[in-house]
């Protein structure tokens, strides 16, 4: 459903939020290990997300990535839109370019309801919620 870049971005932001809630900062090696991603790939993703304000970063010996209050209020939908664009929320279920209400593909009418449910779920899924569920051991990021 998501690109690999988007999957890593979501997992990394949740991991950083959980590990930095006490004010600490998390390094690339820890993030990579914690979410089971290639180090160079996650570094590139986080550099981009930092520039766009999804995560904070600090350089130096005590540097690393961290998230603050406003960062925790971001939804998964915000991340998906930034990384993968709006296709998940508006694209054709069969990948057709011309699919619309006036010119529907064979699954258009059923898929638009599913697409809306996915959008609603991701908009209501905030980073802070995932951190709480991880702390309660209701969910996990890596086996």
TrEMBL record:
Q: Would you name any one GO CC term?
A: cytosol
- Domain of life of the organism encoding this protein: Bacteria
**What residue stretch is flagged as signal peptide?**
none
The Gene Ontology terms for molecular function here are:
DNA-binding transcription factor activity
InterPro entries named among the record's database cross-references: Tscrpt_reg_Rrf2, WH-like_DNA-bd_sf, WH_DNA-bd_sf
Which Pfam families does the annotation name? Rrf2
Q: Which NCBIfam families match?
A: rrf2_super (TIGR00738)
Task: Quote the protein name from its UniProt record.
Answer: Transcriptional regulator, BadM/Rrf2 family
* Species of provenance: Epilithonimonas mollis
């Amino acid at each position: 459903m998501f690109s690999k870049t988007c999957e890593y971005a979501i997992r990394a932001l949740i991991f950083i939020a959980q590990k930095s809630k006490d004010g600490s900062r998390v390094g690339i090696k820890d993030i990579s290990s914690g979410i089971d991603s290639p180090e160079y790939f996650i570094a590139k993703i986080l550099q981009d997300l930092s520039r766009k304000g999804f995560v904070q970063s600090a350089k130096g010996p005590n540097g690393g990535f961290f998230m603050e209050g406003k960062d925790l209020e971001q939804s998964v939908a915000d991340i998906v839109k930034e990384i993968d664009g709006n296709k998940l929320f508006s694209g054709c279920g069969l990948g057709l370019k011309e699919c619309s209400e006036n010119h529907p593909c064979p699954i258009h009418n059923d898929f638009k309801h599913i697409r809306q449910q996915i959008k609603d779920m991701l908009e209501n899924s905030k980073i802070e919620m995932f951190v709480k569920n991880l702390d309660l051991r209701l969910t996990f990021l890596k086996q």
